Amino acid sequence: MLLSIYENKRELKGLFTEANLIENFVEILLKKHCIYTSWQKPQFKTLLHFLGFLSKNMITWRKNQIDKNGVIKIALEFNKKTMHSYIVDDYINPLINSGIIKINDNLIEFSQLCFLNYAISYFMKHDQELKDFVLSEDNYLTLNKAVEYFASENPSTYELLNFIRKKVDDSKRHVAEIIKKEQDLNIYNLDFENMGNLSLLDIASASDEFEKKINEIKADRVRNDEMMDNIDPIDECDEFGGVYQDKHLSSKKIFMKNFSWIYLSILEYLEVQNY
User: Fold this and answer.
1) How far is it, in rounded angstroms, from Cα 163 to Cα 83?
2) Within 98-206, where are the H helices?
3) Under 8 Å between Cβ of 259 and 175
4) How far apart are CA 120 and CA 57, in angstroms?
5) Burial class of 139 by CB neighbour count within 10 A (0 to 12, 13 to 18, 19+)
6) What percentage of the chain exceeds 90 in pLDDT?
7) What is the pLDDT of residues 83-96, one digit of tens each?
8) Alpha-carbon gap, residue 263 to 255, rounded angstroms
9) Which helix (H) or strand (E) holds 102?
10) CA angle, 55 as apex, 50 and 60 as ends, to 5°?
11) Is 147 helix (H, G, I), strand (E, B) or coil?
12) Alpha-carbon Rg of the chain, whole angstroms?
């Protein structure tokens, strides 16, 4: 990817984000297949827009793959919405030939997850419905890479920054409530930056006491693990290649999945401190 960008766009200078790299690579791949394309067929910008439209349908349908007939219907709908009249295959074939999407057993999917995330982030700028869907309570964490790319492509707006800040504040408040309930401790009163590390050797002077403390901490960790398993059992399915892991996942479970490690780490630290 990097060599291709360097070879084709040597004028680019400065620091690049992951989204910048993928954006330039997708542009190179698509333009390579549009050099000799007749004006009667979709050009680069139209293909890029269709790619975004395709990604919208895939994630809102929660599908990793769509059969070719389904993609044909999407292309016809795209023609209708954009008032184009291109042949359907003239949308699909360049994307397959460029390697951005692939077809196996009549099923079409994105060849790389980064291409899907980029297409989503690109189309979010043009489709408010998709933007609202991605930034909804149930989706913004599972589609975090698309959100990251969108933020990278729109650095001059504070909208997403304020959105993420609110989510972080809500998450901190939620974690604090759980710890207050479980440990009767207000974490806002703790100075984590100035807390030193506490060794078990400092709390267990004799060998028999040391073994006792180890067993107590192990028991507490088992209790915490069991509690988290009850809240959010490990998913056995990975329906959407790491993007949509479970279409029935509730917002509460999504929250606990992403913040459980914070909670457990604090609990384990406090349990050692209390000894």
Assistant:
1) 34
2) 113-124, 128-134, 144-153, 159-183
3) yes
4) 10
5) buried
6) 33
7) 999 999 999 999 99
8) 12
9) strand 101-104
10) 130
11) helix
12) 25
**Which structure tokens are listed for 236?**
């056995």
What's the token pair of residue 211?
């073994």
Instruction: Find out whether 98 and 108 touch, Cβ atoms under 8 Å.
Output: no
> How many other CB atoms are there within 10 angstroms of residue 214's CB atom?
12
pLDDT, one tens digit per residue, over 19-32 is 888 888 888 888 77
Model confidence pLDDT, tens digit, residues 96-136: 999 999 999 999 999 999 999 999 999 999 999 999 999 99
- β-bridge partners, 68: none
Which residue, among 4, 133, 3, has the nearest Cα to 56 in the 3D structure?
133
Please provide the size of the chain in residues: 275
The type of residue at 164 is I
Q: How are beta strands 101-104 and 66-67 bridged, if at all?
A: unpaired
